[in-house]
Amino acid sequence: MSDLTELTVTAAADLIARKELSPVELVRALLDRIQQVEPKVLAWARLLPEAALEEARRLESLQVKGELCGPLRGIPVGLNDTIFTAGVETAAGSKVLAGFIPDYDATVTARLKAAGAIILGKTVTTEFAMFEPGPTRNPWNPGHTPGGSSSGSAAAVAARMCPAAFGSQTAGSILRPASFCGIVGLKPTYGRVSRHGVVPVSWTLDHVGPMTRTVADAALLLKVVAGPDPNDPTTLPVPVDDYTTAVGQDPAGLRVGVPDRFFTELADDEGRRAYEAAITRLKELGLQTRPVRLPDVFEPLRDAHRTIMYAEAAAFHKKWFRERPDDYRPRTRRIIRAGLLTSAPVYLRAQQIRTLAVRAMLRLFEEVDVLVTPTTVGPAPRGLDWTGDPAFNQPFSAVGFPAITVPAGLSSSGLPLGVQFVARPFDERTLFRVAAAFEAASGPALKPPV
User: Fold this and answer.
1) Apex 192 CA angle, 233 and 69, nearest 5
2) What digits encode the pLDDT tens for the residues 124-159?
3) What CA–CA distance (Å, rounded) separates 237 from 208?
4) Cα dihedral across residues 250, 252, 257, 263: positive or negative
5) Which of 57, 291, 306, 332 lies most in the core, judged by the most C-beta atoms within 10 Å?
6) How far apart are CA 167 and CA 157, in angstroms?
7) Are 183 and 213 in contact, with CB atoms under 8 Å apart?
8) What does the pLDDT read at residue 132?
9) Alpha carbon separation from 157 to 33, 107, 109, 141 (Å, rounded)
10) What is the Cα–Cα distance from 220 to 209, expressed in whole angstroms?
11) Alpha-helical runs (H) found in 182-297
């Protein structure tokens, strides 16, 4: 392939395994691409070109001797700047942590390295993975937001600066930027992927997941990083599947739930049209689409999510905020102040609502195998002063169910739109099966003009 930056994770790993591509060649091609487009996109908080090339040379020497192994052998990836990397600054997009250098890897980082991945650099996040935007631009149109909080990860993957990156999601911080930038984003089940070594927003809501250009790549990366971790007691001893084998399996006959309200009410005209077209495509693939009634607790869940997120964020930041309030930007300050004012009864009531919502959603999934919704209310909004509305992702972050976004075409203004699939807890396999079939029926991957 003449343009190595177009290679997916799966394709590049296959070529490296067959000794038809060197990890050094791949890293150099991506660094050249970064030099070309990074000034327009601003996706990276810090790059690690020397370390990446050094690791690529080490892996190349193993490749020559036939000793290179691991599913990600020589694949460069980006890491959101909330994910610890030993010896590399992890600032979480903030002044407060500027200069902080962890002395250990996050579990996700360690598992990626063990699988043969090369850490290309740290991608831009919004301040503390909340709502204050970073400098990143949308590669489809620099006047529009790339979404957040995993802004840099989404933009870097879309702009072909790396084939994969990782982000975190508390409300909509993986799926929303993935949709806005025209790529695939996966939020696994809560407890599927360790958050050890990831700067938290909300301990009971945070998720970590991959952002890629194909569903198959997301499935491969989940297999690498998933599984219990003694350093994160929220991870559960649920078997980790070979999710890649679900990609390509015929989803015909699976039951797809179409929610009765909320999503179509809030979506704009283009979002609704793309959603309706997606439902038609699913029917053509042989899936059984059926209307489902969302539980009555679905709408109150949004306020409950916000209460939990703000209170837990305030608990984490309380000491720094008392000592350095001016080092926080306005939106983050407002969140922490609101969290500090949240009483214990209000917080506990929010957790009760969340528990009721989990139970109700589990009952809903007795009727269907997946839900389908728009990923966002519409294409990426114009302007860089906010990261867009997470309303369509927030409920599924609150209940911890797995969700994936897949590109669903372009708006009239040439900006990506996405469709979101949601499954029951720990059923990522069905999620990949449906998402991959939809992806295959939707045509080639979207490529921004940058």
Assistant:
1) 110
2) 999 999 999 999 999 999 999 999 999 999 999 999
3) 17
4) positive
5) 332
6) 11
7) yes
8) 97
9) 12, 22, 18, 15
10) 12
11) 215-225, 263-266, 269-284
In order, the DSSP letters of 160-197 are TS-SEEEEEESSSTTHHHHHHHTSEEEEPPTTTB--TT
Express each pLDDT in 43-72 by its tens digit: 999 999 999 999 999 999 999 999 999 999
State CA 411 to chain mean position distance. 22
Distance CA 51, CA 226 (A): 26
How many Å is the maximal CA-CA distance in the chain? 63
- Nearest CA to 58 out of 12, 22, 105 is that of 22
Q: At what angle do helices 23-41 and 9-17 cross, to 10 degrees?
A: 160
376 close to 176: Cβ distance less than 8 angstroms:
yes
Q: Nearest CA to 331 among 301, 303, 310?
A: 310
What token pair was written down for 342? Answer: 């949240």
pLDDT of residue 106: 98
Domain boundaries, the chain: 4-251+375-442, 298-350
Q: Write the single-letter amino acid at 139.
A: P
For residues 160 and 40, the answer to whether their CB atoms sit within 8 Å is no
For 9, half-sphere exposure in the C-beta direction (CA atoms, 13 angstrom radius) is 34
Dist. CA 123–CA 47, nearest whole Å: 8
Return all residues near 85 (Cβ < 8 A) that are at least 6 apart: 79, 102, 105, 106, 109, 119, 122
- Give CA angle at 208 (35, 139), nearest 5°: 30
CA geometry: angle at 220 spanning 25 and 72, to 5°?
Answer: 30
Cα-only R_g, the chain: 20
Structure tokens at 130: 């909340």
- Give the Cα separation of 32 and 34 in Å (integer): 5
Q: Are 308 and 287 in contact (CB under 8 A)?
A: no
Contact indicator for 434, 283 with CB cutoff of 8 Å = no
What fold, for 4-251+375-442? Amidase signature (AS) enzymes (3.90.1300)
